[in-house]
Amino acid sequence: MFFPELWENNFMDSFGERLRALRQEKEIGQVQLAKEINVGKSIISLWEQNKCEPTLSNLAALARFFNVSIDYLAGLED
Fold first, then answer.
1. What Cα–Cα distance (Å) separates residue 18 from each residue in 2, 35, 41?
2. Dihedral of alpha carbons 8, 13, 17, 22, sign
């Protein structure tokens, strides 16, 4: 059974942290990452602070850029 509220809470608790960790591991700034995936420069900060959620296409762009799965970014797998 799927519980959307549990998925959303899990996503919002870990997405920003995982994104920040991946970005820092790759030694790339927020502005540079934004340019790489073609989003506004402030959106990375908002995502890392869990103040907004990325679209599916942005999640896919992040997953491709960092060579990880969308499930990993969403905190559904380690």
1. 23, 19, 18
2. negative
